[in-house]
């Protein structure tokens, strides 16, 4: 008889450290001879880090929308397919940073009607410094979403503690315990969690937290699923989405580079991004080196990693935020990009 495949959900706001954790999980699975499968969801049209995941790991991608709303039906289908075609030992779902975790959990439980799947743990990664700033303001859509993601978890990874003063850690922990007294809390830098904590049985997951009210608020919204305004330019080098409700505050710009960029100018450009661009990532070629780089921008921190992809990858950048000028951003990128192609 078929085994039941355990499913784990990784959630947390944009740039909190989910992919960093997923990479650790995949390394651990490999060292133990476990066969994982992953389902990655991105609000952008390109799965930047997905391009770098080892070819032999079964992976399903849901792009250009959030599984909690536009792609929710697909989540169930993809999960059933992943399970039936690959018979993995475990499935990990990494949601977008703007996902409502309850909707994902509903999607997984729905899929378990059609395949032998069982939702085990919901792990929310929290960017300690970002949350601290939001706590001090105490309101706003991002703050509300962070809270919902925290409430839905049974494991909380309080990450980026290297960027938080030790005096502030207690305030963060108190907030987490207050919003979710049942979850296990682990403090980390670079999402370094013992895998045993992630796989342990932490008891039932509560599908009826307060955030349920938000779920209904969203799903009754007349724009949900339907009113996404997509506009492509003709040469397909850029692609702009205006996402309507429930993520009506989220906008995404995906830009395909035509050539290489100047590394110094590109870094300076990232560092002056407006505060309402929360997240950027991509793969760039620099004019001054033959290598490719994965760049990351999350809450004002910039990171570059030299990469050697196993397969052909796109040189592309994705920017996620709210209320920023998409045309200004694209114009800046075009100026950088045309440096080598005048
Ligand atoms: N300083 C610091 N940076 C971190 C830590 N954990 C992750 N990062 C960096 O934060 C950036 C975002 O990390 P990711 O793991 O890609 O975050 P994510 O949650 O997958 O982001 P999304 O895909 O936008 O949802 C990367 O540049 C990481 O290297 C940490 O503990 N401290």
From TrEMBL:
InterPro entries reported in the protein's UniProt record: CobW-likC_sf, CobW-like_C, CobW/HypB/UreG_nucleotide-bd, P-loop_NTPase, Zinc-reg_GTPase_activator
SUPFAM superfamilies named in the record: Hypothetical protein YjiA, C-terminal domain (SSF90002), P-loop containing nucleoside triphosphate hydrolases (SSF52540)
Reaction(s) catalysed (UniProt annotation): GTP + H2O = GDP + phosphate + H(+)
UniProt keyword annotations, A-Z: Chaperone, Hydrolase, Nucleotide-binding
Coiled coil: none
Any one Gene Ontology molecular-function term assigned to this protein's record: hydrolase activity
GO cellular component: cytoplasm
A UniProt-annotated Pfam family: CobW_C
PANTHER family per UniProt: COBW DOMAIN-CONTAINING PROTEIN, COBW-RELATED
Family affiliation: Belongs to the SIMIBI class G3E GTPase family. ZNG1 subfamily.
Protein name: GTP-binding protein
């Amino acid at each position: 008889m078929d085994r039941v495949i355990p499913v784990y959900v990784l959630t947390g706001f944009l740039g909190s450290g989910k992919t960093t954790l997923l990479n650790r999980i995949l390394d651990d699975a490999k060292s133990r001879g476990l066969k994982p499968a992953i389902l990655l969801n991105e609000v952008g049209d390109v799965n930047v880090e997905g391009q770098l995941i080892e070819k032999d790991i079964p992976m399903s991608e849901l792009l250009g929308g959030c599984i909690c709303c536009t792609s929710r039906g697909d989540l169930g289908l993809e999960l059933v397919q992943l399970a039936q075609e690959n018979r993995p030992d475990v499935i990990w779902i990494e949601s977008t940073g703007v996902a409502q975790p309850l909707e994902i959990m509903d999607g997984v439980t729905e899929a378990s009607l059609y395949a032998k799947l069982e939702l085990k743990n919901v792990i929310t990664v929290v960017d300690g410094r970002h949350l601290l700033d939001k706590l001090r303001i105490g309101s706003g859509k991002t703050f509300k979403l962070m809270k919902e993601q925290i409430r839905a978890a049974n494991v909380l990874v309080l990450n980026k503690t290297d960027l938080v003063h030790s005096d502030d850690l207690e305030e963060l922990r108190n907030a987490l315990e207050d919003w979710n007294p049942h979850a296990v809390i682990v403090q980390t830098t670079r999402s370094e969690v013992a895998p045993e904590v992630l796989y342990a049985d932490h008891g039932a997951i509560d599908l009826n937290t307060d955030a349920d009210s938000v779920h209904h608020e969203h799903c009754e919204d007349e724009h949900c699923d339907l009113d996404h305004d997509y506009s492509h330019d003709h040469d397909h080098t850029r692609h702009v989405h205006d996402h309507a409700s429930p993520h009506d505050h989220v906008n995404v710009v995906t830009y395909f580079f035509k050539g290489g960029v100047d590394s110094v100018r590109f870094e300076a450009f990232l560092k002056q991004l407006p505060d309402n661009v929360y997240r950027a990532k991509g793969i760039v070629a620099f004019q001054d080196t033959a290598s490719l780089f994965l760049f990351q921008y999350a809450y004002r921190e910039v990171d570059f990693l030299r990469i050697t992809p196993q397969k052909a990858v796109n040189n592309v950048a994705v920017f996620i935020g709210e209320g920023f000028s998409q045309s200004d951003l694209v114009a800046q990128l075009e100026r950088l990009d045309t440096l080598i192609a005048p």
